[in-house]
Q: What sequence folds into this?
């Protein structure tokens, strides 16, 4: 190692935990304690928000509590026995919550506005320091309490951990149920699902446009794979690629103006660029093997993809300005399905090891690779907008489920919904 | 260098400490583990298509604009279930087909007759391969003869894979199997305009199941006549 600088991975491994604990101290006088090899979760107390009778929706505190508990970073401290529970700053008796073991306390109110909207006020406290970390107000449409709760969860997460939360995002995925394939969009906690497209034939590979307004996907409704683009607002749909042979693997460019797709019209499975409005595809490379699963780097400089040109499926990248493809993965005989983090620094992919298909990440600066999961049939990794978590599909008891893993592999969750789920994609 | 070593040690200590920190909802993988024990968990990686035992009879391609009229539906017949020792299913059923090919496959509409050799529609592939086994040549021969005699008919060649690995990568692998059959038919003189090779990847398994007995039935190319 001749570089005077540390490799990025060393920075990441040594300094990030230190920075994280520094951030914690700065924000909430808390540290990650490592006792006997177990991480400490931050104990947070939440009092139910004051909510007038007649306001529709679940109490935001319940939604926030579920979000935080599920994240793996927090432990919920029961508010039982602390009545009367505070809903305004002047009602907070800090020593009581300290005695209950809480390091943070969230209180709030829901206030109906004359125009029918709802104002949600909330306050977050550092209990040991007896100081306010946040005091904010959100205004949402009637029926918007749940989205308000997700946004408040993001604020709590960021204030207590020093990094953005993932609670208010949306995900797309395919649900297979009763012989039908449904492309659905839901909140990041898998609630509020609605069906975008439905077919008795398979649907795969949903891809969000960068502005979150459209989904590209592959449908087999015409007995062959055809790429469609559908607008979420009105459900209108256009055929993006329906050429001779197979059309698949859509991926949006960062500016949303074009997509990369895999076509077999000229040769077996090659990658093309095509305008988002449709039109004549332009082949970007000529490969002796099959190329597929293209994905743009966030800066638009590179196209990452899977190819078996070297004899086994591996991930490559090619400069969009023109040039030679570079092989990115070398470890193992099967590395597929690349996804690039929003900051462009990490690549998640599916890596086969000892016959098991698992989610791995690579630091693109150092090319160091780390396997994050210990399941056996992982597919379709997708980064959260904050880049700290990866959504993927796996099999549990023979059924497809969606799961997330933090990029350091420490925190894993499974999203709950009935039916067979696959092909998740986190909205940008 | 020394500083890096210290940091590396610090890093490994932190990592070691972190490795015990998987506090979250453990993902139940008993099902997945069970599958591993029964499976031969190696992914398909089919190589470039190779055609065996094909008779070169190249002809210029003729575009065909018409499709077959829709008549009574045909029950799609698959090859016979394989015996235990067969890796590629269906080969035992091939023998009678070749002799029949010259007589009754030319009549327009014969592909809708379940008793016709044209009812044989599936070519199976070995693991890790898009090579057409010579045992399936009779199937290609009868369909090629029929298509050449009936330029109004078109076929969709549908490639399929087993379920292991990435869906999109499997779609590409299935395409390779479909192209392999298309190239074999081209060598038999079938005009390009009468064929389209597409892939359904792992999406439409012929047999549901998570072991080799299902997978070998799913690694296949199916011949479908347009409009039937």
A:
């Amino acid at each position: 190692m001749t570089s005077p600088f540390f490799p990025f991975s060393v920075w990441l491994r040594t300094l990030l935990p230190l920075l994280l604990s520094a951030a914690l101290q700065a924000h909430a006088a808390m540290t990650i304690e490592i006792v006997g090899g177990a991480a400490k979760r931050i104990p947070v107390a939440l009092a139910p928000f004051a909510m007038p009778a007649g306001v529709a929706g679940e109490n935001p505190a319940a939604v926030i509590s579920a979000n935080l508990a599920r994240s793996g970073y927090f432990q919920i401290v029961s508010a039982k026995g602390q009545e009367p529970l505070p809903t305004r700053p002047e009602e907070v008796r800090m020593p009581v919550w300290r005695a209950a073991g809480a390091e943070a306390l969230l209180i709030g109110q829901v206030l109906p506005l004359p125009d029918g909207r709802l104002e949600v006020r909330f306050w977050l406290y550092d209990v040991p320091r007896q100081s306010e970390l946040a005091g904010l107000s959100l205004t949402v449409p009637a029926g918007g309490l749940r989205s308000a709760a997700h946004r408040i969860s993001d604020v709590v997460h960021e204030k207590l951990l020093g990094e953005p939360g993932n609670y208010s995002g949306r995900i797309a995925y395919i649900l297979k149920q009763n012989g039908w394939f449904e492309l659905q969009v839901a909140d990041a906690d898998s609630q509020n699902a609605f069906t975008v497209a439905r077919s008795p034939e398979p649907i795969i590979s949903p891809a969000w446009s960068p502005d979150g307004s459209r989904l590209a996907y592959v449908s087999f409704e015409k007995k062959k794979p055809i790429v469609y683009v559908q607008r979420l607002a009105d459900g209108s749909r256009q055929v993006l690629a329906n050429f001779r042979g197979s059309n698949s693997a859509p991926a949006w460019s960062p500016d949303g103006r074009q997509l990369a797709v895999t076509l077999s019209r000229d040769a077996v499975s090659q990658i093309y660029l095509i305008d988002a409005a449709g039109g004549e595809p332009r082949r970007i490379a000529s490969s002796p093997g099959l190329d597929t699963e293209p994905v743009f780097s966030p800066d638009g400089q590179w196209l990452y993809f899977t190819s078996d040109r070297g004899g086994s499926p591996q991930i490559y990248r090619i400069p969009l300005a023109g040039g030679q493809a570079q092989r990115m993965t070398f470890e193992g005989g099967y590395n597929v399905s690349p996804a690039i983090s929003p900051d462009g620094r990490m690549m998640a992919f599916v890596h086969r090891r000892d016959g098991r298909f698992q989610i791995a990440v690579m630091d693109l600066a150092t090319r160091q690779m780390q396997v994050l999961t210990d399941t056996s049939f992982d597919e379709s990794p997708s980064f959260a907008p904050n880049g700290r978590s990866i959504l993927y599909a796996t099999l549990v008891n023979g059924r497809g489920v969606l799961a997330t893993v933090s990029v350091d592999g420490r925190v894993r969750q499974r999203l709950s919904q009935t039916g067979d789920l696959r092909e998740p994609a986190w909205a940008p | 260098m020394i500083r890096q070593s210290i940091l590396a040690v610090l890093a490994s200590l932190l990592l070691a400490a972190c490795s015990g920190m998987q506090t979250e909802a453990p993902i139940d993988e008993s099902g997945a583990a069970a599958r591993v024990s029964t499976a031969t968990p190696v992914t398909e990686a089919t190589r470039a298509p190779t055609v065996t035992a094909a008779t070169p009879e190249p002809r210029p391609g003729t575009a065909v604009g018409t499709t077959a009229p829709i008549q009574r539906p045909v029950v799609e017949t698959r090859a016979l279930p394989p015996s235990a020792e067969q890796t590629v299913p269906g080969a035992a059923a091939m023998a009678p087909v070749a002799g029949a090919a010259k007589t009754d496959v030319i009549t327009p509409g014969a592909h809708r007759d379940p008793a016709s050799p044209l009812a044989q529609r599936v070519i199976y592939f070995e693991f890790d391969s898009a090579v057409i086994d010579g045992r399936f040549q009779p199937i290609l021969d009868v369909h090629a003869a029929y298509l050449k005699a009936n330029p109004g008919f078109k076929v969709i060649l549908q490639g399929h894979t087993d379920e292991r690995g990435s869906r999109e990568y499997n779609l590409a692998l299935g395409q390779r199997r479909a192209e392999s059959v298309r190239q074999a038919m081209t060598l038999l003189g079938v005009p390009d305009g009468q064929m389209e090779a597409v892939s359904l990847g792992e999406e439409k398994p012929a047999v549901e199941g998570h072991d080799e007995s299902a997978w070998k039935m799913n690694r296949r190319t199916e011949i479908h006549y347009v409009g039937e």
